[in-house]
Amino acid sequence: MRPVFIIIIAAVIALGGGIIARHFLSSPTVQTSQAASPSPDFSFPDVSGKIRHSAEWQGKIRVINFWATWCPPCIEEIPEFIKIQKQYGDKGVQFIGIAIEEREPVAEYLKSIAINYPILIGGIDATALSQQMGNVISAVPFTVVVNREGQIIHQQPGPFSDEQMLKIITPLIN
Q: What are the residue ranges spanned by the domains of the chain?
């Protein structure tokens, strides 16, 4: 009788741990840095193979989005990013999409949508960069907002609504 009791207790503890882990992983929290940290430099090719370096967008408000074509929330937020890029691009806002996969599926996806900001191909190196930028749970999508001085001022695991985005970038524009 005693081994059965131990197994039941272990199962209850495992179930509780799983429920707690699922709660924390399925409802991402918004992280806004109290002390802004510098954004690391990076270089990745775009879909055409041209190497693009983060210094290219120095002095702009950068919205760096780590995404994948197989990620439904990633695909759902892209139209909002296109809209905000169009609306605020001339005010110094620059979206940068970094795909955490290989070139072929990204190039195929880009045939179906006109994205007005650079899309870079990062593969596994992009995952490492997102972790350097604060993606401690390896969430996808993961978005970082970098101010004009090159400091990460906001980290967003999971989807980013246009309302949330405007709340973060509007004070930086003015």
A: 1-29, 31-173
Q: Residue-wise pLDDT tens for the chain (174 aa)?
A: 566 545 555 444 544 444 333 334 433 333 343 446 788 899 999 999 999 999 999 999 999 999 999 999 999 999 999 999 999 999 999 999 999 999 999 999 999 999 999 999 999 999 999 999 999 999 999 999 999 999 999 999 999 998 999 999 999 997
Q: What is the pTM of this model?
A: 0.79
What is the rounded CA–CA span in Å between residue 74 and residue 65?
A: 9
31-173 placed in CATH 3.40.30.10: yes
Q: How far apart are CA 145 and CA 45, in angstroms?
A: 21
Taking the mean position of all CA atoms in its chain, how far away is CA 146? 12
The Cα–Cα gap between 138 and 74 comes to 14
Whole-number Å distance between alpha carbons of 51 and 44? 5
Token digits of residue 94: 């620059």
- How many residues are there in the chain? 174
Displacement of CA 143 from its chain's centroid (Å): 3
